[in-house]
Design goal:
twelve-stranded mixed beta sheet; about 325 residues; single chain
């Protein structure tokens, strides 16, 4: 069991396969021309499998693959299939651009649920936000996965003055389509041009929905990051990840392993633990894992509070989102 000094048990590991991506969302990747991590410094497939096994032996029973975009990695299918042999719930977060190529692999790996990032339902705005003309491919792949029986969650980062006016459109999408929309409060990371006046809060999101829809609060599962809701009569649901205004830190069970093998005990942690170098030296990484979790702050990496209106992003010591893993 991996437990911190606040009594939180950590049984959920998020593994980033790469910091590479085929899109250029400004809030995730700071620049168009980006220096990706050299392949030699990335965890290799056998290292990912070996480290994952160690975490499972220590109590992990859920693994999520992230990126960058995990499916641009050439050996992504092999990694999925290797990890599927572990006694874990396996899932992933993806931008959806390559999902049409991976349906058979996902089925074989036992993946039943996955998260797909989509911040707008307008093709022209999508191109502005991502600097890529891939909206139709992603939208069609979402419906393809639903048609194949997958549980699909759509992650929508809400930003004031950019896409907050689309909140009702995403709710309308859930009426006849069993898609599960997750509205995410805009969070600060290195280089993502975060300012407090771009944050659309939990209360503001609910207020925008209430103008047109009645909704019911759902019972959240243990350790859920999202607060779930449903509109009566809708095939899908919606939820809100309120990291900035009402975080879920007290029930956090998550650990992150970056593509270059660094362990982060919190999305906002200042420090990282280099598991990959230790593993390559032949050292036992278990003590490093447990010490990292023992050092975990009570909330938000110990770097800020929910008083986000007075937060200055440049004071936060962290990586860009793409190098952490979604």
């Amino acid at each position: 069991m991996i437990q911190d000094r606040f009594g939180r048990t950590h049984n959920y590991l998020r593994i980033s396969l790469t910091d590479n991506c085929n899109m250029r969302c400004f809030y995730c990747m700071p620049e168009e021309d980006y220096d990706f991590t050299p392949v030699s410094k990335l965890m290799q497939a056998h290292e990912i499998e070996a480290l994952a096994k160690i975490f499972v032996e220590e109590g992990v029973d859920k693994i999520r693959l992230t990126g960058g975009e995990p499916l641009v990695r050439k050996d992504a299918a092999n990694i999925l299939l290797a990890l599927s042999k572990l006694p874990v719930k396996l899932t992933l977060t993806t931008n959806g651009t390559r999902l049409h190529e991976f349906v058979p692999v996902l089925r074989e790996a036992g993946v039943r649920s996955l998260n797909i990032s989509l911040d707008t339902l307008q093709a022209d705005k999508f191109q502005v936000m991502t600097r890529r003309n891939l909206f139709d491919k992603i939208y069609n792949n979402i419906h393809l996965l639903i048609d194949h029986g997958f549980h699909v969650k759509v992650n929508m980062v809400v930003m004031k003055g950019l896409n907050d006016n689309e909140i009702p459109d995403f709710i309308a999408w859930t009426k006849h389509t069993p898609v599960h929309v997750r509205f995410i409060e805009f969070m600060p990371f290195s280089g993502n041009r975060w300012t407090s006046n771009k944050v659309v809060s939990l209360e503001e999101i609910l207020a925008a929905i209430a103008i047109k829809y009645d909704y019911i609060r759902l019972q959240d599962a243990e350790n859920d990051t999202a607060k779930g809701f449903t509109v009566p009569g809708h095939a899908g649901t919606f939820a809100i990840i309120s990291t900035m205004t009402s975080p879920f830190c007290s029930g956090c069970n998550r650990m992150r392993l970056t593509a270059d093998g660094k362990m982060k005990n919190c999305l906002f942690s200042r420090t990282e633990t280099d598991l990959l170098s230790a593993f390559r030296r032949g050292d036992d990484v278990r003590p490093l894992i447990h010490q990292s979790i023992q050092d975990k702050a009570k909330e938000l990496g110990g770097q800020f509070t929910t008083d986000f209106e007075h937060l200055h992003a440049e004071t936060i010591d962290n990586r860009s989102m793409i190098t952490i893993g979604g």
